[in-house]
């Protein structure tokens, strides 16, 4: 596997740091991480060069796929000063909430971070403290069945309204031919952080703002946000199964990858898996930016991404730092891109020929994530988790028929105003 020469000094420095870290003893470094798709197998592949270079071993401590469940467990462990976990794989939104529990990496990783997108490094910086090292970024796509759209003379929808009609048309036509298991659109409707991501995209693309704006203004109770949720509330039981209100990423991918959906909203990891030899949709799908809505012309994709943070309670600080630096390096990010389809945070990898050939979604997606919309974790600081919980609950209630969009967003605004008044 070729590596551009200008990566070499970063890689050598990272592996040298590991080799020097514990020359006398071989340490086991534990890393807590959510597992989605084939994450366990890919972890072993990615850390193998580091293990060989340093003599240490890296052990994955698997966490639930749900980011909400992960965050809850992390908080418990960190509050207890758990020394059994050295490194934590952290969501892009968690830095302000967990900063005090992690080691400042700004000095050891300063040079390495120059090769990463500055905005992504900034997202992991609280004050002057680099809380975590970026290992991949994320922005969701609309996946579509090229074969089914061609068969039924439909084009790729650019608006949510078009998607609703096209999904219904293809679904009805296919079912009339006996394809009873086909659904028009699958997405993540469970009451968890993933619904915040989906719903932020609907609301923002309808011109309804970002829930809480960067200046701290609570904006969610507006007519455009109501329109967005009114449209989406029509989907369960029509173009989406009723069970979509319990779907997370893997449930949606399961329906899609068995060939039972026309459209899917999901993250880039599903591209690589959907292209595997065991996939019913291999060679039958494409990806595009998420639709717009309500007469607006700007798409919205929630900015995701994952990072590695070093616990201040770790008893293997040197070896753990070495692994964190390696996982953020160009070499590890290239392995991750090729094996998992994850989007690198190292700028030069978007020009990498191997990645462009093997995972063409990655160079295509650079512009998408550079324009992606962040969740309001910066303005709400330590209260973000509660803000998100209230938002996804209001959305889930609306989609479940428990109150109208207008009623639920009005109540949400009151709740968020109380929360802000308590000081976020």
Helix proportion of residues, in percent? 40-55%
Terminal-residue CA separation: 48 Å
N-to-C SSE string, H for helix and E for strand: HEHEHEHHHEEEEHHEHHHEHEEHHHHHHH
Give the overall silhouette: globular
Low-confidence stretches: 1-12, 18-23
Largest sheet: 5 strands, mixed
Which fold does the CATH topology of the largest domain refer to? D-Maltodextrin-Binding Protein, domain 2
Can you describe what's shown?
The protein is α/β, with parallel strands linked by helices. It contains 19 helices and 11 strands. The strands form 3 sheets. A 5-stranded mixed beta sheet has the order 2-1-3-11-6. Strands 8-9-7-10 form a 4-stranded mixed beta sheet, sandwiched between helices. Strand 4 and strand 5 form a beta hairpin. 52% of the residues are buried. The N terminus is likely disordered.
Layout of strands and helices, then pairs:
Blueprint: H1 8-21, E1 28-34, H2 39-54, E2 57-63, H3 67-79, E3 87-91, H4 95-98, H5 110-113, H6 118-123, E4 125-126, E5 129-130, E6 133-138, E7 141-145, H7 146-151, H8 160-176, E8 183-186, H9 193-205, H10 223-232, H11 249-257, E9 261-266, H12 269-274, E10 285-288, E11 304-310, H13 317-327, H14 330-340, H15 353-358, H16 361-370, H17 377-380, H18 384-399, H19 405-421
Parallel strand pairs: 1-2, 1-3, 8-9
Antiparallel strand pairs: 3-11, 4-5, 6-11, 7-9, 7-10
Helix pairs in contact: 1-13, 2-14, 9-10, 9-18, 18-19
């Amino acid at each position: 596997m070729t590596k551009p020469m200008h990566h070499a000094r970063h890689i050598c420095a990272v592996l040298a740091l590991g080799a020097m870290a514990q020359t006398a003893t071989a340490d086991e470094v534990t890393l807590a991480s959510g597992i989605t798709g084939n994450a366990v197998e890919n972890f072993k592949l990615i850390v193998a060069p580091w293990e060989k270079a340093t003599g240490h071993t890296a052990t994955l401590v698997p966490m639930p796929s749900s980011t909400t469940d992960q965050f809850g467990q992390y908080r418990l462990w960190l509050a207890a000063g758990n020394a059994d976990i050295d490194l934590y794989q952290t969501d892009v939104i968690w830095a302000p909430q967990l900063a005090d529990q992690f080691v400042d990496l700004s000095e050891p990783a300063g040079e390495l971070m120059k090769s990463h997108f500055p905005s992504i490094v900034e997202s992991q910086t609280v004050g002057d403290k680099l809380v975590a090292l970026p290992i991949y970024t994320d922005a969701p796509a609309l996946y579509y069945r090229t074969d089914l759209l061609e068969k039924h003379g439909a084009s790729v929808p650019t608006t949510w309204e078009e998607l609703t009609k096209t999904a219904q048309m293809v679904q009805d036509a296919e079912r009339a031919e006996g394809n009873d298991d086909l659904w028009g659109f699958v997405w993540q409707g469970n009451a968890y952080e993933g619904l915040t991501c989906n719903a932020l995209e609907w609301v923002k693309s309808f011109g309804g703002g970002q829930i809480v704006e960067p200046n701290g203004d609570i904006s969610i109770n507006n007519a455009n946000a109501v329109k967005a949720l009114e449209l989406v509330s029509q989907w369960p039981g029509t173009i989406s199964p009723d069970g979509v209100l319990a779907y997370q990423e893997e449930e949606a991918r399961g329906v899609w990858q068995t060939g039972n959906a026309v459209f899917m909203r999901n993250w880039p990891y599903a591209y690589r898996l959907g292209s595997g030899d065991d996939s019913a949709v291999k060679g039958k799908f494409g990806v595009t930016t998420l639709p717009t809505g309500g007469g607006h012309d700007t798409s919205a994709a929630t900015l995701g991404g994952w990072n590695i943070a070093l616990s201040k309670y770790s008893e293997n600080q040197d070896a753990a730092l070495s692994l964190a630096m390696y996982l953020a390096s160009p070499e590890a990010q290239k392995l991750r891109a090729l094996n998992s389809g994850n989007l690198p945070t190292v700028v030069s990898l978007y020009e990498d020929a191997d990645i462009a050939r093997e995972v063409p979604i990655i160079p295509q997606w650079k512009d998408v994530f550079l324009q992606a919309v962040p969740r309001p974790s910066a303005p709400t600081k330590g209260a973000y988790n509660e803000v998100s919980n209230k938002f996804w609950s209001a959305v889930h209630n609306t989609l479940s028929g428990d109150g109208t969009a207008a009623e639920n967003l009005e109540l949400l605004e009151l709740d968020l105003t109380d929360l802000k008044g308590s000081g976020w």
